[in-house]
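Below is a filled-in request sheet from our internal design queue. Each sheet records the structural input a requester submitted and the sequence that came back. We keep these sheets so that new team members can see what a complete request looks like end to end.

REQUESTER: design group, bay 2
PRIORITY: normal
MODE: inverse folding
CHAIN LENGTH: 838
BACKBONE (tokenized):
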């Protein structure tokens, strides 16, 4: 039976009234009309049905086929199909034939309207978005394939709609070639899906969009260009998602689109492009199964190298850099993106959320680990905690997180084990699959099929795992004990810990932060955790909530976390910029001096004079009694080191205070000492060539090894390594060798430990006359060069100087006193010194 069309039915009602000679139908006429229909057609249509048809009674359903046939027969037709055909023929006779230009103009208007609508949906200002290489590649290979229909797929959030919109706008607005007049009809799938629900075939839907009253008129138009058209015609259907309709309705729509592609395949200038998510394509793979071997279709399912271009990828490095330039301006130099951020910010949706958090300052090259967690949290807020089925999605993800298993470092859940849970939240589960938060992965086994459910990323999985810990324990000590005892790997535990830290910091509670030193599973991740906390405290404190900032500011003063963070020596790239953010808070004077001294010492090792002077000048205004609790005065040592490396001309006040430092070491019991002071004294002893500093400080290290319980194995090994260095400096080589032989080298992520250990080995090998120390020196110098530690790099070259002529040492920095005292910039230092002593 022909589809029910409201316009045709209204015309049929008019014919019924004309047949019955009723000029104005009243409710009382419905009974007489029902009798008249019965008499003419011998079919009974009730008075109530007549009232519904003409609006005297409410109705939510369209007329039945029986009623449609009865009314058509009453008007002299054989039935509804006959009446429908007659209407189509009338439309065909009365409607003028449209030209290519008329149809093209109509299609262009619709396309530009939808493009403009997409501009307002874009999370990043549309003018700053970029053209995508992948779209151009797909269009080019799709045209070369000579297929009628193409499927452009891609994961959720990969920017398909924006990239297609930009490609179309460029094609529509650019000046066409004299030989081509291509037309583009760009529509959302919503209108197509709704039309198929109400009985429209895809062909009828397309005819209406292009301004044809009937499908026959569309057919007639296309046949006029049977032998060739002025250009190609592209029908592009965007956002073809299955979550808007039932599975049956979506299946019917795909079948109709397949019929359309097959029907119009004889017109080589007609092309159909479906834009959909990869998850939708594979979910309904059986619907597209015939297209795999069908040359009329082009998609990733084609199984050809060209077909790979039909699946949208993430941003390339070039695209991401172009996008950053569009946002930040073109005057900034290009710098490579941190590889750690590659998998996150190369995904357009996550880059969009990063932009929403940072605005015009968004630059993923400067993003931190904490920024990544904020972006993922924003993603979950929009995709899980808001919208339709939000409670169902949260409940389902909570239950799945409790059953997560790890295999080959991949977090997953066996679908069969959680089938009952999924059945309770079927709609929510389909939503999560559609938006990409969850993915179904089929095993590669042919006989024993198994489906596992994976989270979009481990970071999302650990979010919900951490959320369970957070809600299960009010006491942070019990929380950490439970997390430590869990069967998860250390990597997963660290990810969960970061989420827990974010939860606590966001509420202004630093109780968990202050217990970081008691966590045993951190190992080499402790420096990253320290940087993560410092960055998080800084970012969340400067949020609009002033109460949280005041609370954090109050708790940080003399906090256990700050004491712990400053006790270590770390040269990790993310450590220095994040720890320095603590200076924006009200630290105790002792903690401020240690932190500024640490930053100044790192600046010396990198030979960044501006950074050094910024911290040194702040130390200069501190009163002398502020340094009384330290084993040495860091200001004096830093002053000496800077003057030495600048030109070996040290002012008399500094030399005098150095002599006092030696006497102070003999009375160092009870004074503050940590890894910063270890390195300061060692560097001082090395460059001043005064072994007495090394002799005096050995007792400090010895007491620390014998009396203080180390907080972890890494700290104990570091202290032993420094002790071995000092022993070597004092000539006790064999004792140093005994200590070094028991040191662990399993700290690949600890740059400071690695460099210091190599420096010890170089000196030790030189003393033992082992020939391979110069090779180790070159390797260590290269490591320092990559990390930007120019002074350490030069020092490593100096250690092997006797093995290489000076003209073969291009890496030696001529600006450093290690090679020759060329510069003498001590005037500024003297002023700082006088200001501090004044």
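RETURNED SEQUENCE:
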């Amino acid at each position: 039976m022909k589809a029910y069309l409201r316009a045709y039915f209204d015309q049929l009602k008019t014919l019924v009234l004309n047949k019955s000679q009723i000029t104005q139908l009243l409710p009382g006429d419905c009974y007489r009309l029902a009798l008249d229909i019965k008499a003419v057609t011998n079919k009974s249509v009730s008075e109530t049905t007549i009232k519904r048809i003409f609006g005297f009674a409410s109705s939510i359903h369209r007329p039945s086929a029986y009623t449609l046939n009865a009314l058509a027969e009453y008007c002299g037709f054989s039935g509804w199909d006959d009446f429908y055909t007659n209407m189509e023929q009338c439309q065909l006779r009365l409607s003028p034939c449209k030209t290519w230009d008329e149809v093209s103009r109509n299609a262009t208007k619709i396309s530009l309207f939808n493009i403009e609508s997409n501009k307002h949906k874009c999370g990043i200002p549309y003018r700053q978005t970029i053209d995508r290489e992948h779209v151009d590649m797909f269009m080019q290979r799709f045209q070369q394939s000579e297929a009628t229909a193409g499927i452009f797929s891609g994961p959720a959030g990969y920017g398909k709609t924006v990239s297609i919109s930009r490609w179309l706008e460029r094609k529509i607005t650019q000046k066409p070639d004299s030989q081509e007049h291509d037309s583009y009809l760009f529509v959302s799938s919503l209108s197509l899906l709704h039309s198929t629900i109400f009985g429209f075939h895809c062909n009828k839907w397309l005819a209406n969009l292009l301004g044809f009253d009937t499908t026959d008129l569309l057919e007639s138009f296309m046949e006029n260009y049977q032998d060739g058209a002025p250009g190609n015609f592209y029908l592009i259907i965007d956002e073809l998602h299955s979550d808007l309709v039932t599975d049956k309705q979506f299946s019917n729509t795909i079948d109709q689109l397949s019929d359309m592609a097959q029907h119009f395949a004889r017109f080589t200038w007609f092309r159909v492009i479906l834009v959909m998510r990869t998850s939708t394509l594979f979910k309904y793979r059986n619907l597209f199964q015939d297209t795999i071997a069908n040359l009329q279709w082009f998609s990733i399912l084609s199984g050809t190298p060209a077909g790979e271009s039909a699946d949208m990828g993430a941003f390339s490095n070039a695209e991401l850099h172009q996008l950053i330039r569009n946002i930040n301006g073109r005057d900034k130099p290009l710098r490579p993106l941190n590889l750690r951020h590659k998998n996150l910010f190369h995904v357009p949706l996550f880059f969009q959320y990063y932009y929403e958090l940072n605005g015009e300052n968004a630059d993923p090259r400067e993003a931190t680990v904490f920024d990544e967690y904020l972006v993922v949290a924003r993603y979950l807020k929009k995709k899980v905690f808001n919208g339709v089925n939000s409670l169902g999605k949260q409940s389902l993800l909570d239950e799945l997180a409790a059953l997560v298993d790890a295999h080959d470092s991949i977090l997953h859940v066996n679908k069969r084990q959680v089938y009952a849970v999924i059945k309770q939240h079927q709609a929510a589960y389909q939503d999560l699959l559609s938006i990409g938060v969850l993915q179904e992965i089929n095993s590669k086994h042919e006989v024993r099929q198994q489906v596992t459910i994976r989270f979009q990323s481990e970071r999302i999985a650990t979010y919900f795992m951490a959320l369970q810990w957070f809600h299960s324990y009010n006491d942070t000590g019990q929380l950490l004990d439970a997390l430590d005892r869990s069967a998860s790997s250390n990597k997963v535990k660290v990810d969960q810990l970061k989420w827990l830290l974010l939860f606590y910091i966001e509420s202004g509670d630093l109780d968990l932060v202050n217990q970081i030193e008691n966590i045993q599973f951190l190992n080499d991740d402790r420096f990253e955790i320290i940087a993560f906390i410092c960055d998080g405290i800084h970012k969340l404190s400067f949020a609009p909530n002033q109460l949280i900032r005041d609370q954090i500011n109050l708790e940080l003063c003399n906090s256990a976390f700050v004491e712990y963070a400053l006790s270590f020596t770390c040269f990790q790239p993310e450590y220095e910029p994040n720890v320095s953010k603590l200076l924006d808070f009200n630290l105790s004077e002792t903690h401020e001096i240690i932190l500024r001294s640490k930053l100044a010492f790192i600046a010396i090792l990198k030979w960044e004079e501006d950074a050094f002077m910024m911290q040194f000048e702040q130390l200069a205004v501190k009163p002398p009694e502020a340094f009384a609790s330290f084993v040495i005065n860091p200001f004096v040592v830093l002053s000496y080191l800077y003057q030495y490396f600048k030109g070996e001309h040290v002012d008399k006040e500094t030399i005098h205070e150095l002599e006092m430092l030696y006497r102070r070491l003999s009375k160092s019991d009870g004074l503050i000492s940590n890894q910063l002071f270890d390195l300061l004294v060692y560097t001082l002893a090395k460059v001043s060539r005064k072994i007495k500093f090394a002799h005096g400080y050995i007792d400090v290290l010895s007491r620390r090894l014998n009396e203080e319980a180390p907080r972890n194995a890494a700290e104990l090994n570091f202290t032993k390594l420094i002790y071995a260095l000092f022993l070597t400096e004092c000539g006790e080589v064999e004792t140093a060798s005994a200590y070094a032989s028991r040191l662990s080298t399993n700290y690949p992520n600890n740059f400071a430990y690695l460099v210091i250990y190599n420096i010890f080995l170089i000196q030790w090998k030189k003393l033992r006359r082992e020939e391979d120390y110069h090779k180790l020196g070159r390797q260590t110098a290269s490591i320092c060069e990559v990390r930007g530690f120019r002074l350490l790099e030069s020092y490593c070259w100096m250690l092997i100087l006797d093995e290489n002529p000076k003209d073969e040492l291009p890496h030696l920095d001529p600006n450093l006193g290690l090679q020759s005292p060329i510069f003498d910039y001590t005037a500024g230092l003297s002023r700082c010194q006088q200001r501090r002593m004044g």
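SHEET NOTES:
- The first helix runs from residue 6 to 20.
- Residues 314-360 form one domain.
FILED BY: M.R.
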